[in-house]
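The instructor's notes for this session suggest beginning with a concrete chain rather than abstract definitions. Hand out the sequence below and ask the class to guess, before any prediction is shown, which regions might be ordered.
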Amino acid sequence: MRAITERAWRCAAVAVALTLLLAGCTGGGRSADADGRITLRFQSLAWQEESVRATKELVEEWNAAHPDVRVEYVQGSWDSVHDQLLTSFEGGEAPDIIHDASDDLADFAYGGYLADLTALLPERLRSDIPEHTWRTATFGDGIYGVPFLQEPRVLIANADWLKRSGVRVPTPRAPWTWAEFRQVTERLSGDGTYGVAWPLKDPVSATLNLSLSAGGQLFHRGADGKVTLRYEAGDAVVPDTVNAQVRTDRSASPSTLGSGGSDTLPGFFGGRYAMVPLGFSYRQQIVQQAPEGFDWQVLPAPAGADGLTQGVSPQTLSIAEDSPHKKEAVAFLDFLLRPPNMVRLALGDWMLPTGAAALADPALRTAEHDWATGTALAAHLRPAPAQSVRGYPEWKDKVATPAFQEYYSGAIDGDELRHRLEEDGNLVLARYQR
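After discussion, reveal the predicted structure:
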């Protein structure tokens, strides 16, 4: 009886060992099929019909050409991606290939959930994307995502309204200054209409990214690597302009401050606002929704001491650290982001590619839908100010968002805004930098 028991125990031990070995190789369910074929799960956040179609077509083309490495398309959502990824990382069920935005990567990268791609990226892809763009996905000494789509913030304007007013129409070579922009919006206002409607439901990213044009930085990293918040003159230009337009000049609609971009379009089409600051990709919604005969155009955002510079958080493609097939996943990324394919993805999302070769494609430099205006602004895009700051999400939600909302509504003044961003903000960041 004892011999039988020992034999059974040895067999069970071998079975457990094999089970653990196989579990380690699968990376939470990712493994080679029985016939040796590898399956990579690719979670995409494409949501517009054109971009979903373009992405799925490219996945199908890869699968047809690579029968031994199959990519499984998984649909994700921008609304819940952070929490969903965190849960999947902690549960060992993260997809191999992860679509996200660069400003969402810091905690995942520092937490060890994403693979460092520095030694895995092919030279073609590494050299095609500018170094300043790679910085949006660089944390410490590693690269944790491939930035592939980006968009500037622009002014979408009622072209007929501008023509009737006789104001100077800005171009990327001769943009408005922030002071001139304020004067123009005041000139365009009156009789219940406004020169501009600011959709500031999420006031932080819009304010910080546009503030780079005026020399605003807000987040200052010292020699010890620690970040300190300082709200200086350049940081105040954009908030003070918006505040003055709403509260002093009455040239900006106060009712849109809590709105998202899409919420302003009916009023824009209805002639309530001459301009709306929006992301470049909103052109697709305008093409789809504008009434027949509505004439609109894309204008560059105002320029400050640093010209047209503005911050951006590109869409990214990362690989899970737990993926057992990183080499194959990088090969798929290299295919997906070849210049012609990157152009297809950019056209599908109405955004700009990060790659130099794709950005030079004639399809992205046409006058139709003002693609050429957007591509002219691409060279001025830089990493968003808080791109690599740990604790930024908490600072944004608990400190900055309510502070900017209260400032724009007139509930607090500029001094109180500065106090909250600096004093309260530095207390939050300190907890992440010990």
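Then share the key points. Residues 1-29 have pLDDT under 50 and may be disordered. The two ends are 60 Å apart (CA to CA).
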